[in-house]
Amino acid sequence: MDNRSTRFARAPYTKILVDKAEATIFTDSSGRAWYFESGNTQSNFIDLVSQDTVYGYEEAK
After folding, report:
1. Contact at 8 Å (CB) between 36 and 45?
2. Interval 27-48 mean pLDDT
3. What are the contacts of 46-54 at 24+ separation with CB within 8 A?
């Protein structure tokens, strides 16, 4: 039986199930990968976080 979590992930902003092979990927400073259905939803999610959040977001250098 295949493990669906190796192929699919839940997008954090919209909660939609996305195919990891087709998703826009963002990696935070802790190394955690976040999968989004588009660059637009990734931007919307990033707009919600700050340096003080648990996501480990850091400003681009």
Report:
1. yes
2. 88
3. 48/13
